[in-house]
Amino acid sequence: MSTNQTTEAPAPAIDPRLMVREEGFAGYLGEFKRKMKTGELGSVPVVLGLILIAAIFQGLTGDFLNADNLTNITLWIAGPGLIAVGIVFVLLLGEIDLSLGSIAGVSAAIAGVLSARSGVNEWLSILIALAAGVAMGALHGFFFAKIGVPAFVVTLAGLLAWSGLQQFVLGDKGTANVLNDGVIADLDHYFVGDGDIAVTWIFALAGVGLFLAGQLLDRRRRTAAGLPARPVSEIALRTGVIGLIAVAAASTLNQSQGLPLPLVIFLGIVVITDFVLRRTSYGRQIFAVGGGIEAARRAGINVAWVRISVFMISAGMAALGGLFIMSQQGSADKALGSGNVLMNSIAAAVIGGTSLFGGRGKTWSALLGILVIQSIITGLDLVHVNQSIQYMITGAVLLAAVVLDSVSRRTQKSSGRG
Amino acid sequence: MSTNQTTEAPAPAIDPRLMVREEGFAGYLGEFKRKMKTGELGSVPVVLGLILIAAIFQGLTGDFLNADNLTNITLWIAGPGLIAVGIVFVLLLGEIDLSLGSIAGVSAAIAGVLSARSGVNEWLSILIALAAGVAMGALHGFFFAKIGVPAFVVTLAGLLAWSGLQQFVLGDKGTANVLNDGVIADLDHYFVGDGDIAVTWIFALAGVGLFLAGQLLDRRRRTAAGLPARPVSEIALRTGVIGLIAVAAASTLNQSQGLPLPLVIFLGIVVITDFVLRRTSYGRQIFAVGGGIEAARRAGINVAWVRISVFMISAGMAALGGLFIMSQQGSADKALGSGNVLMNSIAAAVIGGTSLFGGRGKTWSALLGILVIQSIITGLDLVHVNQSIQYMITGAVLLAAVVLDSVSRRTQKSSGRG
Amino acid sequence: ACGKAGDDKKDSAASGDTKSIGLLLPENASSTRYESFDKPFIEAKVKALCGDCNVKYSNAEGSASKQKQQFDTLIAQGVKVIILDAFDATSTASWVKEAAAKGVKVVAYDRLATGPVSAYVSFDNEKVGELQGEALVTALGAKAADANVVMINGDEADPNAAYFKSGAKKALEGKVKKVVYEASGEWKPTVAGQKIGTAITSLGKDGFQAVYSANDGMAAAIITQLKAAGINVPVGGQDAGVDAIQRIVAGDQAYTIYKAYKPLADSAAELAVNLLQNKDIKSVASATVDSPTDKGIPAKLLSPKVVTKANIQDTVIADGLYKAADICTADYAAACTAAGLK
Amino acid sequence: MTGAPVLALRGVSKRFGAVQALTDVHLEVHAGEVVALVGDNGAGKSTLVKTIAGVHPIDEGSIEWEGREVRINRPQDAQGLGVATVYQDLALCDNLDVVGNLFLGRELKKYGALDEVAMEKRAKELLDTLSIRIPSVRIPIAALSGGQRQVVAIARALVGDPKIVILDEPTAALGVEQTAQVLDLVERLRERGLGVILISHNMADVKAVADTVAVLRLGRNNGSFPVAGTTHEEIISAITGATENAVTRRQARIAEEAK
Amino acid sequence: MTGAPVLALRGVSKRFGAVQALTDVHLEVHAGEVVALVGDNGAGKSTLVKTIAGVHPIDEGSIEWEGREVRINRPQDAQGLGVATVYQDLALCDNLDVVGNLFLGRELKKYGALDEVAMEKRAKELLDTLSIRIPSVRIPIAALSGGQRQVVAIARALVGDPKIVILDEPTAALGVEQTAQVLDLVERLRERGLGVILISHNMADVKAVADTVAVLRLGRNNGSFPVAGTTHEEIISAITGATENAVTRRQARIAEEAK
Ligand SMILES: Nc1ncnc2c1ncn2[C@@H]1O[C@H](COP(=O)(O)OP(=O)(O)OP(=O)(O)O)[C@@H](O)[C@H]1O
Ligand SMILES: Nc1ncnc2c1ncn2[C@@H]1O[C@H](COP(=O)(O)OP(=O)(O)OP(=O)(O)O)[C@@H](O)[C@H]1O
Ligand SMILES: O[C@@H]1[C@@H](O)[C@H](O)OC[C@H]1O
Ligand SMILES: [Mg+2]
Ligand SMILES: [Mg+2]
């Protein structure tokens, strides 16, 4: 057996095994190719899936990409999308909340009965409805975190009890109409700046500008601290892609009725919750609890409080989502929030890339996922086949949308450590 | 600092830290008390919950413990109970199957349409229906285990697609009736031995006898191998308790119509699946995959096959459950398997003590859990209060039933190792 | 053999309850009628006819299997007369037969349950559809002949939905130009709203002149979407929910179908009490109908009515279904005054 | 050692189900003292550590901190007193990256938001002092080697300002160089006046840095020795409970064979 | 060593995302040979073991078994060839009890059903030879101490009939007595003609039982030495890549202070 030995100089600061990306644009492309191979593409497969769905339905009907239809889709995603944002929080803990559909229903019922039947001020009605939602979430959180009842059972009990409450609140008359031209009606119908196209452009460009500024600032701070930073070429590319999307969206919306309020609110909430999750201690704590409850506990995190607060957030989001659904259907009825509402929202979060097993995901996945689902539903409605066939196709397309993602993630499958 | 040191004799064979139970009945009682304190009571809290529920509804209505009502309950648990047995398998893997309600529906639809409309032999229709169910499960398993799509999404797609198929199979006529006095009708209506009370007694006593024989045999083998074994007093106590239950059940059933076929089949399947899970390599593999996929993989277990087969089992059970539900309602309709069927079955498995996070549970929990749920449902039906109030009460009772269990488990909470 | 099960059954309360009437209704989510009207009306009438009788009510929540359990539970409780609004009328043949064997009588309510039922009270569901179609044609007036119609139907899993659809089509045939878009709203307002949204996309804002909605809940969402798109065409539903009456008052909805629940409920209660007390039922149920399984069932058939802005006062208010105050909340006060409601 | 101990356990017992893991255990740690806690596998060392760290509250006995009796029911309680713990099973969050784990529960902030740049910089510095090379501090913990994970866990304990540091087999997975660094670290902690509890099965390491050796055996105290003037053999026979054991047998056999 | 090696790795490379964990690695193991695989933390030892065990298939290079080229894509493949592996992270199922884990995938049966009595008896015997005390073999793995778990993992490798046993830091969590037993075990395996790959950071253990020492450094081969005639210092400098390192510095400083 040979005896050969290399004696090297003291350890260099950077690990030589880390493949460093080439500088500039070429490096970016190389990295992209590598990620493509190893399946670290993040949201790219879902976005591709979305494009595919749009292309197919456009081909079949010629109407899918029409500005009115796309505007409709942005209106319809707000309600289930907000519920999905709440679901993302719960999924990050590795838990599930089955009650969110019922909570959406109760919240709408409360707001409807107070404002339309009892003549309470509409803003106050909304506030009470949201507070009731948050309180229900707190109750779930309490039973889960403090008593130790599995979240599945607590929220299943909630699903039943709150839908009973919803019927009870609506009472014999059953359905409460949305006030004409009131606040709740506006949730779905108002276009910011009353459809002024300038408003849409300002929003789009401000968004892109802020993104660019943030990226550049971060780069400056990292370089100053001697840490590796994103190259300027990559920042330019990213800003370019986002800019393109923003411009396309703005001009489409302006071809129809302008910037829809529900879209602004939904996007705003996604941005805010994303910030909370990624850039605050609280968000970090949620990830920690979801990634390993025992490690989180030993790190001194108040696990019970994190859990309770997350159930409050999810319930609050559901309550808000319920108001958007109410606005969209023009009434609060006994069926609001039942049926597929919850499943669609959970599916949205999962399709968007949030793990069901905790510790991995972001609220943007709620947006992406609900876009996929609403596109399938709306696309099939445009094709208008039989209800039974529609169900079958929805199932198949849903699966197909996720297969793309799963296959690309395959190679990346982690296999433990050690 | 003091320096004191004890030098002991070589290590004894039994670890001195293990608290050994006193011999005889006194020891059994002591152990029970200790377990009570530390929350290792197993099914005891659920059984207590069941007794409480029975007592409350008996108090409210006077009809709950009536032999006809109890016989009814045993008839009705077979369908959802079999689905819950399938759920237990899936939960043991730490996964979920949302499609089981739809599969029950399709299976019933196929059996109904073939036998009642197309005149196919009823046994053959049943076989085809079951095979179709198993095939759907295999498809789910394939997408989950081989393609890597999360089980939640695969089975959600299944939920939609198969309920579309169900409507499609039933067609415009909508409902297929069960053949009069046919095999499917018998699933729910036949009483073994045509209501002969001797048959019930033979079943009950044979069951208890087999249990006792098994326990004694095990004890003999363990003692022979020099391993600690259950004391005779404990075996006597256990047999006594089981005997008591068996006698009470038999005499109640005989007061009504005798031994119901669905009860025999359901119990038989629980016993068989329990054996498979606890006493075969295959069952061990399911637990291993559910307890830690990576450890199972490294142990050389064919993880993909275990996953696929489990989804086949759950779908097969659901298909069978669907036939029982069909027999009970007298028809296969478009709504069979929808609504709360799936949630009730999942809740049954969880209430019975099967973990949602994999690796812990048994099929007996399906029996216990579905008894709890059906008792709540039937009890509330006996009380006849307002629907909305019923929902709220169901939620509350469901929660209460599990709180008992959770509180007793609290002290037992594991806190990592090391 | 040493005996048959049930031989030694004592004559307990369970084997005969002469003061209870069972009431089984099919669901409560897609329509408000069952718990708002059917149930309270029946309870009141039973009380009026038999002071110490009581009604044991359960709701099947859209599941035939659950309804069968409730049916059996009533029998286990010793109830001798059951008013049954079957969730799925075709599956009840064996239930009713089993019940009859135990001496339990069944009154089929609203939907004609199969099996040897003792009597039947209902509206004709096909007729409901026809009235809906005719009302839509009336609302279109002179424009009817050139009108394209969008149909948002009920859930395919509900057998009634098929009757409504076929009745409405029968009435529309030849009277309007064409049904240009047809979809299931699944009895869900949100779904219905989205269906109409896509109908607008594929047909264009001028692509249709009227919308048929199978019930009021879906009509609410449809109207909301149409308004948002700036489209004003007649839309109608059924069930005469208070929200629908409000929309009719405001001119948003063209009509609804009012099934006169009170007479329906009253007749059912009367039949049930008579059966319980072994009195004659022919006086109430003078007609006869045939079901797929049985012939010559004594029946009472009522006609549903169309409600438009013009006859609100004479129908739902006159029948005591609603008080004007229920309808004329702040948001609708002005419209009410204009419509002359009081 | 002079003065009141910073930490003192008095008659602590702990039971898990049917297993009596600790029985009447006593332990004292003074400021500036390194106490080595040794014992056979399953002796109860980690359990003892966890009772101090608040992971498992004690069943019986009492804990004194700077002379006052305290109750430690949750990890927060221990951290509040100034106990930093490196667990044998590391207890890191697999889904968080190295930086996230290092600062978990003690994040650096700027205008209320996380200051990732500052944390990343500080993380690199900390890891450098322990001479470990990690491909990137932005890699999730799950992707690290056993030793890399262990060093991250040790570095975590240094992020706060503790009075007592508990290290449960900190060098078990470490290479020779990293082990030397950790021993240096222990000495630096002592010099800064901190109390250290060091669990190790490596007698050479124990003898190199500890002042006192406390022995646990089957969940009970089995002696406490000043390191100076106690031999390897004495400690080992306290651990195994016998002067004749597998270690001596193996040594004897090898000596035999060498002849 | 004479004859063809049982196992030979030729130019093996393995990449994880952006990390090149192994580059062009060669390794040979003969029957009856104990090869110690050493290297710094993160050098790639565990990764190499996992490629052999079929946990991670290799990216480049080839694996030869008894002279024939083979593909090892799944753990079953490696087990089929006769490779038994004790992983650094143990890879036990937390929810199964000790007996369940020991026999996982190789259960003893009687009339087709599991023979729990036979397995329990055999489990006790196996654990006794490794002189570990576990409160009960029916306790779930999650309730065991670090060392107890490690012994269970080692015992697992002995159920079955392997040709090569791979031990990734088997004694890291073990007490002195148990460590001695494991070293005895390694020698017994060699005597039975098995090949053994032993990963360890403990040079004394390596020198005590290994025939050959293979050094990995930053994912590449950095020398292979016969144990006889190689000093501690030579191995350590191959591991750290420098003659001047934290270990020598620490020794120098202690020598300095001792003066
Ligand atoms: N959560 C638990 N449930 C039940 N028993 C436990 C639990 N944790 C530890 N034990 C038992 O307590 C005893 C002491 O375990 P502990 O982990 O404290 O040992 P240790 O001294 O740290 O051993 P090692 O050196 O192997 O790490 C062991 O017998 C173990 O089986
Ligand atoms: N699944 C993975 N994903 C990404 N990187 C990984 C993965 N597994 C290992 N690595 C990296 O590969 C390198 C080698 O790791 P490995 O576990 O083989 O080291 P080791 O030699 O066993 O170290 P130790 O002595 O600390 O156990 C490390 O830098 C590690 O970060
Ligand atoms: O009244 C309607 C009812 O008959 C039908 O079955 O469900 C929907 C209701 O609107
Ligand atoms: Mg330990
Ligand atoms: Mg390693």
From TrEMBL, chains A, B:
List membrane-spanning regions: 41-61, 73-93, 100-117, 123-144, 151-170, 190-214, 235-253, 259-277, 304-326, 338-357, 364-383, 389-407
Organism, scientific name: Kitasatospora gansuensis
Membrane topology, record value: Multi-pass membrane protein
What PANTHER family does this protein's entry cite?
ABC TRANSPORTER PERMEASE PROTEIN YPHD-RELATED-RELATED (PTHR32196), XYLOSE TRANSPORT SYSTEM PERMEASE PROTEIN XYLH (PTHR32196:SF32)
Q: Which InterPro entries match?
A: ABC_transp_permease (IPR001851)
Taxonomy of the source species: Bacteria, Bacillati, Actinomycetota, Actinomycetes, Kitasatosporales
Record's GO cellular component terms: plasma membrane
Q: What GO terms are given for molecular function?
A: transmembrane transporter activity
- One Pfam family named in its UniProt record: BPD_transp_2
This molecule's function is given as: Part of the binding-protein-dependent transport system for D-xylose. Probably responsible for the translocation of the substrate across the membrane.
Which key words are in the record?
Cell inner membrane, Cell membrane, Membrane, Sugar transport, Transmembrane, Transmembrane helix, Transport
The listed locations are: Cell membrane
The protein here is known as: Xylose transport system permease protein XylH
TrEMBL record, chains D, E:
Q: Which CDD domains match?
A: ABC_Carb_Monos_I
Q: Does the keyword Ligase apply?
A: no
Q: What InterPro entries does its record include?
A: AAA+_ATPase, ABC_carbohydrate_import_ATPase, ABC_transporter-like_ATP-bd, ABC_transporter-like_CS, P-loop_NTPase
Coiled-coil residue windows: none
Q: Which UniProt keywords apply?
A: ATP-binding, Nucleotide-binding
Q: Sorted alphabetically, which SMART domains does this protein's record hold?
A: AAA
Q: Which PANTHER family match?
A: CARBOHYDRATE TRANSPORT ATP-BINDING PROTEIN MG119-RELATED (PTHR43790), SUGAR ABC TRANSPORTER ATP-BINDING PROTEIN (PTHR43790:SF8)
Write the protein's name.
D-xylose transport system ATP-binding protein
Annotated organism of origin: Kitasatospora gansuensis
